[in-house]
Write a structure and sequence with these properties.
- It is built from 18 helices and 16 strands.
- With 600 residues, it is α/β, with parallel strands linked by helices.
- It folds into four domains: 36-139, no CATH class; 170-254, Threonyl-tRNA Synthetase, Chain A, domain 2 (2-Layer Sandwich), CATH 3.30.980.40; 274-539, P-loop containing nucleotide triphosphate hydrolases (Rossmann fold, 3-Layer(aba) Sandwich); 555-600.
- The strands form three sheets. It has a ten-stranded mixed β-sheet, with helices on both faces. A four-stranded antiparallel β-sheet has the order 1-2-4-3, with helices on one face.
- α2 (42-63) packs antiparallel against α3 and α13 (414-426) packs parallel to α14 (450-457).
- It binds adenosine-5'-triphosphate (ATP).
- Adenosine-5'-triphosphate is lined by residues 260, 304, 306-312, 339, 499-500, 513-514, 516.
- This is FtsK domain-containing protein.
- ATP binds at residues 304-311.
- Keywords: ATP-binding, Nucleotide-binding.
- It comes from Halopolyspora algeriensis.
């Protein structure tokens, strides 16, 4: 193997060349140092430069004869006037006065030197007076400019992202400087696709690698501050199907939800099973679902404090239901007939008391059984609501009163809870849906039933304003909420109440407000009959008795009869008479009811 020898340089540097290059290097260093010092001390040197210039102009003029002597002075005066003009535009009042004095002084000395010659007493006086006039300037600029040589040699990390060429949009500049810059809330992020709409604008945000769009949620307060907006005007949502590093922000420059939007006419779409119930802050409509085409009925929960507008939301649901040719509404008014009185004569059944509520729920359970053969005939699946086989929609206002026990009052509502659980678990495919209204969207208000909570979350969940932060809030989908329901304001900026304001549990986590159906009696009802199988079940009569319905203490004879019927059916379905738990599940009755019915 032959070892490679490094190639010799073509020419060896001679000592003379080395000396020459060392001298050039020294000169270069002196020049660099002079420039550096000049830059650093330029303010302090300025008065001396002005004095030197004045002296030079005077000397030049004195050395010329005739009219040529006027040329340097004229140029000098023009220079003095220009310097003053510059100072006038860029300086404060006192600095302007000072610059004016210096300009006039310089022009005067130029003329004096031109006339008397630029040496001797006149020149000495120029320098003496000039230095005296410069003292205040030197005092003021005693500090040299900071030495940034080192920083310039190694550039500091960028503090602001460059603005895209040709981007005149202030929103982009603000984002780049105050959100995306190094050390700000979302460093390295970009804003794009800005599009205006009537009440503000939307944009796409792309975060730096390693970030998730949830971090934009936590930066909402900073965004409000950067764009100088009041609270509640920025919403962040993921872009469906796009990377987790991207999100869409909606920025409201005015609040469209402040103005009431009225319900116009029934608009249930049989092809989708939905109708518009709320309008979002960016003008989109959010829908309530009665049923899934091909998937049976869906359940719903509407929650909000007193006065938040939840009964009005129920009015909308009932309005669409009575106007539809494929929905039969039944109402349980937990407000003892005072919450939804307009629907008394326009719904199939209207319960005002807990006892009547039980009767309605039991009737619904029996209808479920009546519809079993229908499903068998159609070969399984689920009932598709139609004018011949309508959806049975049971709306329960103030449901928490009927679902929660009250030990102090000796009220045991477990049977109601069990019947509701059964209806939500099994009613879907039989075309039976339950719409519950509570004050807080939590399992506690559903009688502690996690079954009800889980089943209702599969349908439409509407959360209006609540008074307190709640644990187990059902208005959450895994993504962070823009704000808690307890954080919703009670009033808009103009002082009007925010009734109907809230969120719908959908992929759109943005504030919305329910449409307002002012006069429920104005809704034109469509007569809808139950299917023949369901119609074979006798419709119970509701007597409106107002006892609190503690089932364990009182069970009227008619209820015992009904309980007996239910038990007979369960036994016929193959449940053993000794299987008490099975009987309770199948009938929705309490242990006491079963005992009493069996005794009778
Ligand atoms: N979307 C809305 N837009 C404008 N006003 C509304 C809206 N919803 C409700 N309101 C107004 O708020 C009032 C109270 O609404 P609603 O009766 O539905 O409240 P609530 O939550 O059911 O209270 P409560 O439980 O005390 O009955 C209504 O009379 C109506 O005037």
């Amino acid at each position: 193997m032959v070892a490679k020898t490094p190639p010799k340089p073509d020419t060896e540097a001679s000592p003379a060349t080395i000396e020459e290059s060392t001298g050039t290097e020294a000169l270069r260093q002196v020049r660099t140092e002079t420039v550096r010092l000049g830059k650093r001390w330029r303010r302090q040197v300025l008065p001396l430069a002005v004095l030197g210039g004045t002296h030079g102009i005077g000397a030049a003029s004195a050395s010329l004869a005739g009219s040529a002597a006027l040329v340097p002075v004229a140029a000098g005066w023009a220079g003095a006037a220009g310097a003053y003009g510059y100072a006038h535009r860029n300086a404060s009042r006192w600095d302007r006065a000072y610059a004016g004095l210096a300009a006039v002084g310089s022009a005067g000395w130029q003329a004096a030197l031109a006339l008397t010659g630029a040496d001797g007493i006149t020149a000495s006086l120029l320098w003496a007076c000039g230095c005296a006039l410069s003292v205040p300037y030197w005092v003021r600029h005693a500090e040299p400019d900071p030495d940034v040589t080192a920083e310039l040699a190694t550039p500091a990390p960028r503090t602001a992202l460059p603005v895209a060429p040709g981007t005149a949009d202030m929103r982009v500049r603000l984002w780049d400087e105050h959100m995306a810059a190094h050390g700000k809330s979302l460093p390295g992020s970009t804003i794009s696709d800005i599009a205006a709409f009537d009440y503000g604008w939307k944009a796409a945000i792309t975060l730096a690698i390693g970030e998730h769009w949830h971090t934009i949620m936590s930066a909402r307060k900073a965004i409000l501050s950067v764009y100088n907006l009041p609270d509640g005007r920025v919403f962040v949502e993921p872009i469906p199907g796009a990377s987790v590093r991207t999100a869409r922000i909606t920025v409201l420059t005015s609040d469209p939800l402040q103005s009431v939007r009225r319900w116009q006419a029934p608009s249930l779409d049989p092809a989708t099973g939905t109708f518009p119930i709320m309008t979002t802050a960016d003008g989109e409509l959010l829908h309530f679902r009665f049923f899934w085409p091909g998937g049976g009925g869906t359940h719903a929960l509407v929650s909000g404090v007193n006065g938040s507008g939840k009964t009005k939301v129920l009015d909308l649901i009932l309005g669409e239901a009575v106007a539809s040719d494929r929905i039969v509404p039944m109402v349980v008014d937990g407000g003892e007939g005072a919450s939804l009185p307009q629907w008394k004569d326009r719904s199939e059944l209207f319960a005002e008391t807990p006892q009547d509520a039980r009767t309605v729920l039991r009737y619904a359970l029996r209808l479920m059984d009546r519809r079993r053969p229908v499903l068998k005939r159609q070969g399984g699946g689920s009932i598709e609501p139609s004018p011949h086989l309508p959806l049975i929609c049971i709306v329960i206002d103030e449901a928490h009163k009927l679902l929660m026990d009250d030990e102090d009052e000796g009220v045991n509502n477990k049977d109601i809870k069990r019947m509701c659980e059964k209806l939500t678990q099994e009613g879907r495919k039989f075309g039976i849906s339950l719409v519950l209204a509570t004050q807080v969207p939590s399992a506690t208000q559903l009688g502690g039933s996690t079954v009800l909570r889980d089943q209702l979350k599969g349908g439409t969940v509407i959360g209006l304003r609540v008074a307190e932060r709640t644990s187990g809030n059902m208005i959450s989908s895994g993504a962070p909420m823009p704000e808690g329901l307890h954080e919703l304001p009670a009033e808009f900026a103009d002082g009007t109440p925010t009734r109907g304001l809230g969120y719908v549990l959908t992929s759109r986590m943005i504030r919305a407000r329910s449409l307002l159906l002012e006069d429920p009696s104005s809704v034109q009802a469509t007569e809808t009959r139950l299917d023949p199988d369901s119609a074979a079940e006798s419709v119970p009569t509701l007597d409106g008795r107002s006892d609190l319905g503690n089932e364990e203490s009182t069970t009227p004879a008619s209820d015992a009869d009904e309980a007996g019927d239910l038990i007979q059916k369960a036994l016929a379905d193959g449940i053993a008479s000794t299987d008490i738990a099975g009987l309770m599940n199948a009938t929705g009755l309490t242990l006491g009811q079963i005992r009493r019915a069996v005794k009778q």
